[in-house]
Amino acid sequence: MIVEKSTYRRLPALARTDRPGDAIPAPKSRGSNPAMPRYESPYDPSMMPKNLEHIVYEKKGHVAYVRINRPDVRNALHSYAYAELRSCWRDIGIDPNIYCGIVTGTGEAFCAGRDVKFLAQYQAQGKRTPHEDPTSPLFFWGGGGQPSDVSLDKPLICALNGFAVGVGLSLALQCQLRVMADDAWIGDTHTLVGRLGAPHKIYQALPPAIAAYLTLCNGRLNAQECLQYALVNKVVPKAQLMAAAEKLAEMICMGSPLATQAAVRLFRLAAEQPDALIAYARHLDQETAESEDGAEGPRAFKEKRKPVWKSR
Predict the structure, then answer these.
(1) What Rg do the C-alpha atoms of the chain give, in angstroms?
(2) What is the pTM of this model?
(3) pLDDT tens track for 187-197
(4) What is the spatial distance between Cα 214 and Cα 218, in angstroms, rounded to a whole number?
(5) How confident is the model at residue 286 (pLDDT cuts 50, 70, 90)?
(6) Domains along the sequence of the chain with CATH
């Protein structure tokens, strides 16, 4: 939902959001700038994202449901799915009636990561994918369609219905609470396709040796191992997964929305990496993406063969 500045309602002495539709950032203290105005847009339910092609988005009571719906590619994400996800995060952030969200996937997978075949098709033409191409309208929506892209301050519950790898694992890690089907697993396969991903986020969420195993050895953890390392709150049979997630949502909704969002904001700030590290991670990711190996990985995946790495 994008609202023109002319429709904003001016409120005194708080901070302003500069990106229309994004979640409103934490206000500056009155002591630092007491005259700074805040602009808020009234929420219009008719602007809720509808007719999405790759994501199913629903609301029930105070809970928003986000379901990745590309089962034919095991819910792998491409530029258009990223954009739809981001529109859902933005809507959750600005709808005052929504207190939390549940994120899951359709079919056997939660998310198989990035759609590497989609990536390979663009690379074969010497092009960047739309959300990475400055000339594309989707470039504004860049990144991986993650909640952090809009500074979402409402809690998310990840219902891991199946395996989560690559960017799918990154999405799961951005949720504050996680329940997992007993036959699900997680992994990081970025290096297999010559990419980097977000190893610093994995390193932050798991014991160092386990994080290194996932990232460097393309390892995987099953549901019980995820529970052992406190990566998930609960492991249940798949038939009970959504009920377990909804129970957590019910508990969240019992609390003050204002206090809950403040807590999530502090969680996010406490987990943020230094700006220099984030900038360097983006630089390395771009560097690997534009390397010969970065092109070889998706090409080999599409051609169903082992990649031939050149280390350049």
Answers:
(1) 20
(2) 0.74
(3) 998 777 777 77
(4) 5
(5) low
(6) 18-24+42-303 (3.90.226.10)
